[in-house]
Amino acid sequence: MLHPSLPISVIGISFCCGIVLREMVTDSPSFTMVGFAFVFMWLSHIKRWQIVFWSAVVGAFVLLGMIRHVPVKNKEANHEKQIVVMVQKPLNTNSFGHQYIVKNQDDNERLLLQTPLSQTFLIGDRLLTQGSLVPIPKPKNPVDFDFKTYMNQKGVVRKIIASHDEHILLPPQQSLRRWAHQTQRKLVQQLNKLPIHLESKALIMALVLGEKRDLSEERIAQYQRAGAMHLLAISGLHIGILLLLFRTIVSPLKRFRYGSVAAALLPVVLLWCFAFVSGASASVTRAVTMFSFLQLGLGLNRKLIRMQSLWASFFILLFIQPKFIFDVGFQLSYSAVLGIVWMLPYWQKMVRSKNTIIQPISTLFGLGLIAQISVLPLSLFYFHQFPLLFWVSNLSLFP
User: Fold this and answer.
1) Is the dihedral of CA 215, 216, 220, 226 positive or negative?
2) 3-state SS of the chain: helix, strand, coil percent to 5?
3) Which pTM value belongs to this model?
4) Lowest mean pLDDT among 201-205, 222-226, 353-357, 392-396
5) From CA 309, how far away is CA 334, in angstroms rounded?
6) Are 259 and 253 in contact (CB under 8 A)?
7) Which residue ranges form the domains of the chain, and what is each CATH number?
8) In sequence order, what DSSP letters do the residues of 244-268 get, joined into one string?
9) Residues ≥6 apart with Cβ < 8 Å to 212
10) Residues facing 129 on adjacent strands
11) Which of 72, 137, 347, 368 could disulfide-link to 394, CB 3.0 to 4.6 Å?
């Protein structure tokens, strides 16, 4: 008998392979080919040709993934002119200034804009600037970070070289993401007024609001060496802890009529409220979507639904935004959570204790161990390192 999560996992993996394959080929398949593949899949299902059916499923969703993903094309530099752009996403902040991903209002091209430290913008801000568009250069040193490839995976191939630092603000474009970003900035301003140490304040803002620009390079390096860098970025770990907390808070509702439905849905609502308060960044939105599906599976009180929910969220997120598959954070989050959902029950059966102190500690240790083993191949591939202190840092920092 096939595992219940096999169909949706085959669909998700096949669709993912189609996206990656589209990056390697120049031509996209036609909708006619996809249509024939789905018709062949349906016919083989009726005839009960199992091997043919699963081959057709793989082929159909590989083709669908290739059609859904449109690779970015390299563009040449152009002459200086006036450009109207809209801020889509704050990217990074360093000693040279702030970096933003903006959208050209003329042709919807995504561009990289760098501004001085004295200038900050919100999502939805519209700017009139004078400058030229030039391709993002490749790294001069082969061992340096490949910023060009990093930006290409985000759909950005050119940056704005402004003729001056001043930009003319135009009426902003209102949206839910702009409101979320404004809420995050207001909370950051309130935290800055608290009479606590600057390092502690910066750590709180990173852990709660995803605001890392005030963290010192020394503190970031300490977390990297300890294998706990994931604690400084709001992602699957934080959302998972919040989901556990919300589930505990609403659990008394199960005693009432229809309380089980409320206990299943309220944590999802609270997760999305937190996502918007923390700025609704792409990584937070992905993690909340993933755990929303997981919570609905948990709400049905069926273990197999949990794995199916994760694969369903994987497929839906990639269908909405195929470029997510090239995001390292996306890959790490799903690798860790899939590993935990699959392996943690086996760990709990293997290491079982009636002691109320030992049991949660062993579960916590197992969770950190499984998560790190799940992301080990990706960590070695992208970062060329594997911190051996991860289990100590996770055991001490998770509570």
Assistant:
1) negative
2) 60, 10, 30
3) 0.78
4) 392-396
5) 12
6) yes
7) 6-68 (no CATH), 81-170 (2.40.50), 229-397 (no CATH)
8) HHHHHHHGGGGGSTTHHHHHHHHHH
9) 202, 205, 206, 220, 232, 233
10) 83
11) 368
